[in-house]
Design a protein that fits this description.
With 316 residues, the chain is an alpha/beta fold. The chain has two domains: 125 residues, 2-Layer Sandwich (Nucleotidyltransferase, domain 5); 170 residues, 2-Layer Sandwich (Nucleotidyltransferase, domain 5). The protein contains eleven helices and 13 strands. Helix 5 runs antiparallel to helix 8, helix 7 crosses helix 8 and helix 8 packs across helix 9. The chain is globular and about 60 Å long.
Length: 316
């Protein structure tokens, strides 16, 4: 009989845990600080304690749990359950998280990249329900994606598939990306790129509302608020960002011919300010047949996609 599962979404700042039933309902959830600066053992111990607390609070025993799934922001070897590299969680390199948690709880444990988990969540219980070919994109500090092709999650030859943020938009002398190369979509259009563009306009002497609204920093959120208050410079920034992402995704649409692209992540909370220019550009620039087949929609599960998707790594 199918039982409940635990999904755990590990981020640079917080770890989210949830008990999830077979219909994707969250029965209990909790958040604890990651505190990566204390070393990975500290975080792992915190996670173990939180699982015990989850069991206690929900009056469950471990034998009512099918398994525990983890999502990490980085490269994860799904087969061995080892976190290879998580750039935003210092100290997490070659950490055998699945074995460490299995040794404690004696249930199956799986781990994968967090955006892939989000894609599984949206595919099963969110905006991608019923789709066979789907791309789930997150736009935040970086740009990542989970790819579903013919109903299956694509991991690639070395678990590195889905790095849409590193589709190249410029051949020479583009902006420097965190990956070390230049000209990547992420270097043109992620959260930090939005802020960099906004600061450039200020340096260039443009009068803007977001300059007054900054508290004290300029963030994509502040620029979004300024755009909603009709600041033409802020609106222009989202138009340009939408165009960059739309052009990058046009190449991906030509390659994979998905029926849906789900856009999530913090910056996607800007809604139509980003989605409208993105969709218009994508439809204009993708090849006709693939471009007209694809629908661009906002994510549905919000910040619960990660825990729900992580739980789905465990087979029922
Ligand atoms: P991370 O990639 O670090 O996990 P998130 O996906 O949570 O980050 O995205 C965080 C970013 O989203 C921040 O830069 C924040 O300013 C931005 N953000 C939050 N809300 C909005 C909004 N309504 N419009 C645009 N950007 C937003």
């Amino acid at each position: 009989m199918k039982k409940n599962k635990i999904g755990i979404d590990v981020g640079g700042t917080n770890v989210k845990l949830a008990l999830i039933d077979r219909n994707g309902n969250i029965l209990y959830q909790n958040t604890v600080p990651t505190r990566a600066e204390m070393g990975y053992e500290y975080t792992v111990n915190n996670i173990k304690q939180s699982v015990y607390e989850l069991l206690k609070e929900t009056k469950s025993t471990i034998d009512t749990i099918d398994g525990i799934g983890f999502g990490f922001p980085g490269q994860v070897d799904y087969k061995s359950g080892v976190v290879r590299l998580a750039p935003n969680i210092p100290g997490w390199a070659d950490i055998p998280i699945a074995k460490m948690i299995e040794d404690e709880f004696h249930v199956p444990v799986c781990a994968d990249n967090d955006v892939r988990c989000a894609a599984l969540g949206e595919l099963n219980f969110g905006a991608g329900a019923g789709c066979e070919n789907l791309i789930c994109v997150t736009v935040g500090t970086g740009i990542g994606a989970g790819l579903i092709v013919n109903g299956r999650l694509v991991r690639g030859a070395s678990n590195a598939a889905g790095e849409i943020g590193h589709v190249k938009l410029q051949m020479h002398e583009g902006p420097l990306c965190g990956c070390g190369d230049t000209g990547c979509m992420e270097a043109f259009a992620s959260g930090p790129a939005i802020v960099a563009m906004a600061e450039n306009y200020i340096r260039g002497g443009k009068s803007t509302k977001y300059r007054e609204m900054a508290n004290p920093e300029i963030t994509p959120f502040v620029i979004c608020e300024a755009a909603k208050a009709d600041d033409p410079v802020a609106i222009r920034i989202f138009n340009v960002m939408g165009e960059y992402i739309g052009i990058g995704l046009a190449s991906v649409v030509n390659l994979l011919n998905p029926e849906k692209i789900i856009i999530g992540g913090g910056v996607a909370d800007a809604g139509d300010l980003l989605l409208k220019p993105l969709t218009e550009t994508l439809k204009k620039r993708a090849m006709k047949i693939a471009g007209s087949a694809v629908e661009i929609v906002p994510a549905q599960l919000g910040n619960t996609a990660g825990v729900i998707g992580a739980s789905l790594l465990i087979e029922s």
